[in-house]
Design a protein that fits this description.
Elements lengths: L6 E18 L4 E14 L2 E8 L2 H15 L7 H11 L8 H21 L3 H5 L6 E6 L7 H10 L5 E5 L2 H4 L2 H15 L3 E5 L6 H8 L7 E3 L7 H10 L3 E4 L6 H7 L5 E4 L6 H14 L4 E3 L3 H9 L4 E7 H10 E2 L4 E2 L3 E2 L11 E2 L1 H4 L3 E3 L1
Parallel strand pairs: 4-5, 4-11, 5-6, 6-7, 7-8, 8-9, 9-10, 10-11
Antiparallel strand pairs: 1-2, 1-16, 2-3, 4-14, 12-15, 13-14
Helix pairs in contact: 1-2, 1-3, 2-3, 5-7, 8-9
This protein binds magnesium ion.
Amino acid sequence: MSSAIEIGAVEWAAYQVPTDGPEGDGTFAWDATTIVVVHVHAGPESGLGWTYAPAAAGHLIGEMLAPAIGGRSAFDVPAAQEAMVRAVRNAGRPGVAATAISAVDVALWDLKARLLGVRLARLLGVARPAVPVYASGGFTTWEDLHLSRWLSDHLDIGRAKIKIGESWGTCERRDLARVELARRILGERELYVDANGGYSAAQAIRLAAEFPEVRWFEEPVSSDDLDGLRRVRDAVAADVTAGEYGYDLPCFARLIPVVDCLQADVSRCGGITDWLRVSALAAAHQLEVSGHCAPALHVDAAAATPNLRHLEYFHDHVRIESKFFDGVTPLGPGGTLTPDLSAPGHGLTFKAADAEPFRVAG
Ligand SMILES: [Mg+2]
């Protein structure tokens, strides 16, 4: 195998997909999701990556990242990723640039695996044959009947997360009623809640006393409030978690001392290159990592992570990934994803014709 296969053309496009109903959490509401899809070409192959981010991430890929990686070896992904990070120094990495870097990094890892004719999980090194997931949806905008049906449809997974903290924590009674409804439907299964930073620390501690059976309390306060996270973690029975807005390693280093489980998102944190570093950082502090959303994008990296807890099987992204990609790993018994090790790369191909009606840029 030649080591001289150079990275060539980089193509991107952005697609906006309406949700299947109004969606909201503690601190945000939306009715559409934008996905930026990137293909990186080298030799006879191309790699596929994506991120859930505004079209601006695609423009940034074309303007700043493609020139930074063009002509580099397609086998030396960390060098290409570092070149992208350096290219955005003045633009600023956290936020849109990090999502753009992440999409290209995943495409580069997929490209390398395809050039070598191996499954991406194999290239990274398999640590577990099956990856556990948890159901994620339960939006504050859903009426109780909708929430009940969604929970009932996902009982086989054995773990489900609902959104609380409605309207910046001003609807406590409804939050508690919805938690109780979910608890009744889930029975002995694991119940998770996510406040998306909607509560104050004292409020989160007070409310958590009302739902001691909850196993996972995600972003009870803003992830910028490190002292608040620490206070809640020290006071509640549930595992306190955060990390979905981790756009670089220093952010994860700050969160590690104040959470029980570190979340990370391959489509934001710097791609698979930095997912592996985040996981190692967590392991050094006896923490597990949990993948945030975009399950099809995470599955190979998750399978290569010894200290993985699970992946978030997020309603919107599951819907878009099944619509836009062939080769998505099907959900298996007990809520697990088992990558097909006979398929090269991450095993996914983009269904461009199906996505075309949703294209908004690129
Ligand atoms: Mg969350």
